[in-house]
Amino acid sequence: MGRLDDYRGIAGDKGISLIWRKAEQLYQRRVLHVNSTNHGGGVAEILNSLVPLMNNINIGTYWRVLNGNRNLFTVTKKFHNALQGDSINLTRTQKQLYLGANEAFSALCPAERDCVIVHDPQPLPLIAFCKKRQPWVWRCHIDLTDPDKKLWEFLKGFIRKYDMVIFSSEKYRKEDLPVEQRVIVPSIDPLSPKNKELPEKDVLKYVEKAGIPNDKPVIAQISRMDPWKNPEGLLEIFKRVKEKVDCRLVYCYDIASDDPEGLGIYSKVYRKAKKLRERGDVAFVVGKHQILVNAIQRFSTVVVQNSIREGFCLAVTEALWKGKPIVATNVGGIPVQIRDGEEGFLVELHNEEQFAERIIEILQNPSLARQMGDKGKERVREDFLITRLLSDYLDLLDDIME
What we know:
The structure is a single chain. By secondary structure, the chain is of the alpha/beta class. The protein has 15 helices and 12 strands. The strands form 2 sheets. A 6-stranded parallel beta sheet has the order 2-1-3-4-5-6, with helices on one face. Helix 2 links the parallel strand 1 (30-35) and strand 2. It is globular.
């Protein structure tokens, strides 16, 4: 990974040449990305590909990860949840912990950069503790449809210091932000271990090692164990599907270092699925490495995303790239990727009956599954690959540093 020319066969010579021409205007510029974890989430996956590619086209690009402990990430996960619609009792202690961690971290962030891009709420206040000598961009990856008002007012005090805010969907734009706002949708790296082509024999090998039998259709949700992914609700949907089609549900999950809720959610869903697990109808698989996740997505008959809120959801993009039909809730950034009835089905929130019916429809109609899968792969090729994201960032840098 990390060489732009490696993507010629996927993005085409025209697209690759355009990126090189855009990069000429930015040679030797220095960019710093800051986020809160280097593994276990979509932001980390994007940066793992984007940072080497930016360096490859001669833009000096650095990546720093916020130093945090469990106490900090317990607070920032509450912030994350509140920004997506939960209420929060915002205390002075929480604010002090949040600000103190960022102030301490500021000493580790080099000032001699031409642009700083801060990802999500965890390192948002960093700007208050650094000498601002360059443009700063806040890149928000989460669903800001209905944030908690008190928390939003607190965070706006920092956001106002930024030169630009980037969202993943037009619906997240905020009229009360006196800062330039831009929409850049996320993307996947088609050459990463999670998304590269895998021979069928390798797919079967990894699936077998994970303990998933090859005896019936598989429905899979690939996501963190997070309340916003609604894994409990998915269990109820699966019970409805199971009444009509003999199939298996696979939870392929990961727990990121900045998400202290994960183990608790996992334990709750695992206990609730006890009888189904014992019958072999439900399996829980830790997505401990990207090739395993890749194999499970390719092995699945239907990939689902039963989210309540969703900034964008790269797990949907990944499954579309692998030619899989998707059934997902019509929330956040998911409808940016899926046209209902084309690449998959969109279902309104909390409509478990319709969600189950759509899964059954695909399971009982293999030709429909193939048609949706083919359309999904082409949609990702056109709109959601890392080369398009790189091109968008070059436009951003050219605009903000002129």
